[in-house]
Amino acid sequence: MRSQLMRRQLVHCCPAHERLFLLAVFLSSALAACGGNDGPAGTDDGPAFPPQGHVWIVFGADTVTAEIADTDEEREHGLMNRDSLPDGEGMLFAWTNEDIRSFWMKNTYFPLDIAFLDRTQTVINVSQMQAQTETIHRSDRPAMFALEVSQGWFAPRAIGAGSRASFVFGPR
Q1: Which CATH superfamily is domain 54-169 in?
Q2: Which of 23, 63, 116, 120 is most buried (CB neighbours < 10 A)?
């Protein structure tokens, strides 16, 4: 009862405060109802993290959602025996150390681009790989990561040697 009396006194005493309060309530309700597409990840824009076993590899405004291959078995199998790879998706091969890395395309049915990255997630070199070939594609320097994507994904985005990536890992 006392709070109602105090509120009435405040309202009657200071009508400008009541108008400001009502304006603030109205504006916050309107903003909440509008939503928008500029919110942080995890809202209507999509998930806050990649799916389990995946990583987002971000090159400025461009992002690849990649499966993670970080065991010998996963790295050996890679993208072999698959029919396709959707645009914007790929596979990240990861090791615990830097070394010269080598890849081929045996039993891989579609052409790929591969980017070799060092421990700082900087691209060392990019190579185009033709489907079902045994041509060896190597990193120019020791690499800790290799990212395979559909052929032609890197070039139009001007991603090449010296480009920096950042990784956002999903739950493992």
Answers
A1: Protein of unknown function DUF192 (2.60.120.1140)
A2: 116
